[in-house]
């Protein structure tokens, strides 16, 4: 078993550089490079953020849900798409390789990790790391083959025929987490779903912070309190009454007492309190904040801290205080935080953000254009987060376009865009290409709704890199005389409809356009709110498909 001592402060830093995952839960394939200190993992629901943290913790500790993986091994750890494809291949009469799970954690190359160093990894790199593989045990190959010989009967994988290979990159077998010189802590307060479990979680954390003498003193005090219980006169009276029932129920004397056996230790009877109020009766936000802070405190020896959605149940003020605490107490540790919150994004800095989508993870430093990197480093994270979290984005040039697109979508589909996961984002037209670079990297569908500004050729030149894209669509009109939104609305709907929408009585198009151009916001708001039937310009209609 490997036992290595790591330096505390100063010297080289030891951290996770990269994680590769194959076929674990929703992550069919993931290859993620990580920041040395802070990683704010941002993505939509079901994108695999939690699975990424769980996989890292599993590979580094061998634990799943607080128990050894062998105990927790079940068929649903395998990616469901992979399993379905495997069964389908069997039904077609082919002999595919049985599904397997691979989790590889690549560590920074440091002299303290020499014994973990080797090229036993899928990239063939000679560096320290840990590999956890769940695959068919060759000793059970014949039994497995018999099991899958009737594909129509298969619903899940028979994990009873599988084994777990947990090794470092030097091919040394890892027996338990002590064989890995990096300590990892996973903090997920949201998984504590009931009062008893919540109390137990906090008591366990508190227990870790006590010295051996303090634990002994607390245990002795608790046992003394239980012994004194029997000395109470009322308890003695009750036991005397029960003693008279000897022979009727049992030949032995029946009495009541507190459990003083070894299993009834102080941890089972202690209830954490905040300001003299039992923890389970305190608000969920305060509970979660306390759990995270305590876990950070008692995880001081851990090199890697994994925090799941710190913002749960917290107001902005409380969240600000908690994030400040996390930042201030991170020290030299590598921190991972998953979030949906733009507030967390801004508070911790977008330079730490990992944009994550089903195994595709990019950092802003991955963007090729240095000016684009700088732009997003300075931009408040809200709009960036909206692009990442939406199923599809429609980028528009300003508030007027946003109102028209929102209403056009609602007229077409009978509901607001966000109800379908479509986010209409107002972006300065100069920044369109910066957002599109992220969309392409993350494979997030996006439409740009733009004016032609009187020059279609210039527009095509500007967006030349995206005109043939399967991910990004540039929506515009070819008629250069209709160079902005207002003439487009007038041309599509006619003067009579425009007058009706605006509550005006312009006698000609020129007068109407002059008014619309000088009252852009009011014009868009009237079109958004009106009950008069109107049609969006064709290029907007294409965007709200």
Walkthrough of the structure:
With 545 residues, this protein is an alpha/beta fold. It contains 20 helices and 20 strands. The strands form five sheets. Strands 1, 2, 6, 7, 8 and 9 form a six-stranded antiparallel sheet that branches. A six-stranded mixed sheet has the order 10-13-14-3-15-16, sandwiched between helices. The model is unreliable at 1-12 and 192-198 (pLDDT under 50). The protein has three domains: 16-36 and 44-182, no CATH class; 194-243 and 254-298, no CATH class; 390-545, no CATH class. The chain is globular, with a radius of gyration of 31 Å.
Explain briefly what this protein structure is:
With 545 residues, the protein is α/β, with parallel strands linked by helices.
Q: Would you count the extended β strands for me? A: 20
Mean pLDDT over the residues:
83
The total of helices stands at 20
In helices, the fraction of residues equals 25-40%
Low-confidence stretches: 1-12, 192-198
Shape: globular
Largest sheet: 6 strands, antiparallel
| N→C terminal distance | 60 Å
Structural class: alpha/beta
Oligomer class: single chain
Hey, roughly how much beta strand do the residues contain? 15-25%
- Any idea what the radius of gyration is? 31 Å
- List the domain count as a whole number: 3
């Amino acid at each position: 078993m490997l036992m290595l001592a790591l330096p505390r402060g100063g010297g080289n830093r030891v951290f996770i550089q990269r994680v590769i995952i194959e076929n674990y839960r929703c992550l069919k394939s993931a290859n993620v490079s990580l920041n040395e200190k802070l990683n704010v993992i941002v993505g939509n629901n079901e994108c695999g953020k939690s699975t990424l943290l769980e996989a890292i913790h599993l590979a580094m500790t061998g634990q799943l849900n607080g128990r050894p993986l062998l105990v927790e091994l079940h068929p649903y750890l395998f990616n469901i798409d992979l399993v379905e494809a495997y069964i389908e291949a069997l039904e077609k009469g082919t002999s595919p390789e049985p599904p397997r799970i691979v989790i590889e954690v690549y560590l920074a190359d440091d002299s303290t990790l020499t014994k973990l160093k080797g090229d036993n990894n899928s990239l063939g790199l000679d560096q320290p790391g840990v590999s956890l593989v769940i695959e068919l045990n060759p000793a059970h190959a014949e039994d497995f083959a018999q099991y899958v010989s009737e594909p129509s009967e298969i619903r899940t994988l028979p994990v009873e025929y599988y084994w777990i290979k947990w090794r470092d990159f030097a091919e040394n077998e890892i027996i338990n987490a002590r064989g890995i010189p990096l300590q990892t802590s996973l903090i997920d307060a949201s998984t504590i779903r009931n009062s008893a479990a919540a109390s137990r979680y906090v008591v366990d954390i508190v227990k870790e912070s006590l010295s051996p003498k303090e634990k002994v003193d607390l245990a002795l005090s608790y046992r003394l309190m239980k012994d004194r219980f029997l000395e109470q006169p009322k308890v003695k009276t009750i036991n005397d009454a029960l003693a008279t029932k000897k022979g009727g129920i049992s030949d032995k004397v029946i009495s009541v007492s507190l459990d003083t056996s070894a299993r009834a230790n102080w941890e089972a009877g202690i209830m954490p309190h905040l300001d003299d109020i039992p923890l389970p009766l305190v608000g969920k936000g305060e509970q979660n904040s306390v759990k995270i802070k305590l876990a950070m405190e008692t995880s001081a020896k851990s090199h890697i801290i994994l925090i799941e959605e710190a913002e749960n149940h917290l107001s902005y003020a409380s969240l600000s205080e908690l994030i400040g605490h996390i930042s201030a107490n991170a020290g030299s540790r590598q921190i991972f935080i998953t979030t949906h919150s733009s507030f967390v994004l801004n508070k911790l800095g977008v330079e730490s953000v990992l944009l994550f989508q089903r195994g595709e993870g990019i950092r802003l430093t991955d963007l090729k254009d240095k000016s684009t990197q700088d732009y997003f480093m300075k931009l408040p994270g809200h709009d960036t987060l909206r692009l990442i979290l939406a199923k599809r984005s429609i980028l528009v040039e300003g508030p007027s376009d946003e109102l028209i697109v929102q209403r056009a979508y609602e007229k077409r589909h009978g509901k607001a865009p966000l109800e379908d996961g479509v986010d209409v984002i107002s972006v300065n037209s100069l920044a369109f290409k910066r957002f599109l670079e992220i969309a392409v990297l993350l494979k997030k569908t996006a439409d740009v709704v733009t004016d032609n500004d009187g020059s279609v050729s210039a527009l095509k030149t500007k967006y030349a890199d995206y005109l043939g894209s399967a991910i990004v669509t540039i929506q515009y009109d070819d008629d250069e005389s209709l160079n902005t939104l207002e003439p487009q609305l007038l041309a599509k709907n006619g003067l009579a409809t425009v007058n009706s929408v605006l509550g005006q009585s312009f006698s000609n198009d020129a007068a109407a356009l002059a008014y619309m151009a000088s009252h852009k916001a009011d014009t868009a708001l009237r079109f958004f709110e009106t009950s008069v039937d109107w049609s969006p310009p064709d290029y907007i209609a294409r965007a709200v498909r």
